Amino acid sequence: MLRLVPQSGFLPCTVAAIVLGLATSTVFAQSGWQQISVPTRAPGDTWEWDGVAWAQRTPQTSPPARCCYAIAYDVTRARVVLFGGTDSRVDFADTWEWDGVNWTQRTPLQAPSPRRQVRAAFDWNIGRVVVYGGGVGGLGTPTYADVWEWTGNDWIPRTTSVSPGQRWSHGLAWDSRNNGLLVYGGSPSGGVITLGDTWLATPGTWLQVNPAISPPPLTRVQIADHPFRGLIALFGGQNGAFSDQTWIWDGFTWTQDPRTGPSARGENGVAFDVARDRLVLFGGYDGTYRSDTWEYSPGGLATWHPFGQACAGGAGPPRLGLTGGSRPVSGSNADLELAGVATALSAWIAFGLSDQIAGGVPLPIALTGIGMTGCALFASVEASAAVPIQNGVASFALSVPLDPTLIGAVLFATGIAVEPGANPAGLVLSNAIKLTIGLY
To answer: Phi-psi bin for 368: left (phi > 0), alpha (psi -120 to 50), beta?
Structure first.
């Protein structure tokens, strides 16, 4: 992490959220509560971060001062959308938009009820800003479970048979690897219970995700997505004590970044600055209000991702992946598992260095012409290893060298099963996986 000091003038405060404006490549903040003479009054000023300094904007019109609001960038309409929040006396249900110059209050026919600690994110599936949850008053009673979509003119409720339920002070961000909205943590009511669950919203439904590794239960938490790298970052939050942990969601599991970062806090604002490939963090609360700005690079993260399609064997398509939260971390083993090979005579895992070309031929390569009906090769093959099959699963521990020059190096793998009768060639292939070697 690299600490950056903004220009003078941005006083210590919580920021319910900061957001990246993709149209201008600037990070935008509407400030929250500040500790001036009355610690729970909010100035309601508007700022933008260009990677060097915060610059205060002077719009002719601004929303009433508040904190604990929902804010997200509407990619479709190139607007920042703000909903709800509180001035510590009254909870709001108003909707505002920032066009880069001025704030405009919108007058939808319907809207979510007044609330605070509500969260918003842009849903790329439908091209709309979505708000979820929130609560009323200092204890969040009642706490809401409703989801609303902003059309640009009106709020429309979204109904599903399954949902994460009532919660406030949670994290909400876009998960580009899973093509859905990700929810983490929060509290179901009154702040008595703190949640540590992860949920994914895809069109029409919610699914609870059960990764092998997760952050501790946290409330007063914010998460931010990097839509072009497929990562979501979480810093801080509270579960009794405030947290100083940094966690990264890569679409499959949570990974803690062990590097030292800002001091423990909650209610800080976070947003990914895509143009500079940095997470920007501002402010927060740890018993006092903070005014520091930090930038974070998620470099060094060990990741793996599946791609391509398998072809069917006798037990269905073989599936290649890593198990138990395993990752290709330098100096450790990456535990590969080839499932769905119960009817195979033997199995292999092939390793390669490219997903673009193999033997001078562009990838993927269709293999139906050589008797592997419906199969395709998605990664090159430079080496292979035979793997034993037990209970329909073939496992292989890939030893990742402890070598700093390999950080960021990429390796591809494909599962191969010998299946006489599955096709004329008697061979089937799994999906491919991409492994990126990292420090953690």
So the answer is: alpha
